[in-house]
Amino acid sequence: MGIIDLLNKDITQQELLNHYHANITYIELPKFFYGLVFGYRGIYNIYINKNLSYYKKKKAILHELAHIELNHLNNDLFVFSIEGIEDEADKYVKFLIERKV
Q1: Predicted pLDDT at 55
Q2: How far apart are CA 18 and CA 26, in angstroms?
Q3: 2, 27, 52, 82: which is deepest, by most CB within 10 A?
């Protein structure tokens, strides 16, 4: 179960969130900040900028789910390589969207 299943509409967003033990909260963030995710005690907390358009929110959610699916949050070097990890999450989502059945 993963993002590709969500994109193919084989599962709902809530089913994927349940699978990853994740939840989404919409909060006010600076204009340039779309979202973030962090894990704590086996639960992933995704925060999305509530001021984004519907489609930007969906893109941000996919991006944050990609971090979970790619195990970026289990990487001790995360703080030192944020830029590369952000690019990797974007490329992964793009790859899945293009691959979608």
Answers
A1: 97
A2: 17
A3: 52
What percent of the chain has a predicted confidence (pLDDT) above 90?
77
What's the predicted TM-score (pTM) here? 0.89
Coil, strand or helix: which one is 83?
Answer: helix
Q: Which domains are present in the chain?
A: 3-99 (1.10.10)
* Amino acid type, 97: I
Taking only Cα atoms into account, the Rg of the chain, rounded to an integer number of angstroms, comes to: 13
Among candidates 90, 39, 81, which has minimal Cα distance to 60? Answer: 90
Query: What Cα–Cα distance (Å) separates residue 69 from each residue in 2, 31, 32?
Result: 7, 26, 24
pLDDT in tens, 49-86: 999 999 999 999 999 999 999 998 875 544 545 668 89
